[in-house]
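Hey, I'm writing a tutorial for new members on how sequence and structure tokens pair up, and I'd like a real worked example in the thread rather than a made-up one. If someone can provide the structure for the chain below, I'll link this post from the tutorial.
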Amino acid sequence: MKFNNIFYTFSMITLALLFSCNDDDVTIPEPMTNPPTVNISMNQNVEIATTVNIDGSATTGEGALSYNWNVTNPLGNNVALSNNTATMISFEVSIKGDYGITLMVTNDGGTEMKTGKVTVTNPSFATIDQMGRPAINTVFNFFGDAATKDGYNTTKPDGGNVDSELFKGILDALQGYIGLDPVTYRNVLGLDNATTASVLATDLLMSNKEFRTTYGPADLTDLRLGENLLNGRGLNDDVIDVTLILTFAGDLTSLSGLQQGLISDNVSDNDKTHSDQFPYLASPH
């Protein structure tokens, strides 16, 4: 009987404790949030002066995700991004080398990071056509007859058959007409006619993307071939004047009145602003 009483008493105490508990006394642990899994997709190798697109939308995770991007150029400087907290970013690469990419994504479970790099190259361009400078392909390349001139204009530079000696003859003759000595003549680059002919006879525009496109510098005392001189062509570069200066101006220290009249076509910049979008036209009158 004593055993039954003890069991009965224990049962009643247990029931009393159960009924005395309410919902507030029961603690249910919250499920843990896992940190995000970061994934980025991007171009691994691109050419200079192009736009790089990087996509982080493949990142997965529970709850709200916040993004934070950082991009550094090969010099270690931060690259300006239009929105460094978006799922996708883009930016233009302006120098060659490796760009460092970092994406940090955060949710309630923590922060995870993914890094990568984009390698930027500055390629060499092979030009397969001539007639890059108006003064050259319309006037300076007349070698005695129209057929020879037409043959020059259709010559492909990679064929290696442009005759710079014929072009030198034109420079010699033009300078002789105005009383210059073509044997001793040196232009503002310090080049004689034979060297100038080798530069201009193959009528090509250089493309060095580490420098701006320009036919000639604003300061004629600072001339760097392939950098601020004869590198591509900017919309406001006076392509005729530069060729005339190389042909007739000498070292620019003592120009005769005749020379001053020959180093410009006296056509100023376009009186309407060019568009900076292809096809780079100016507004019509």
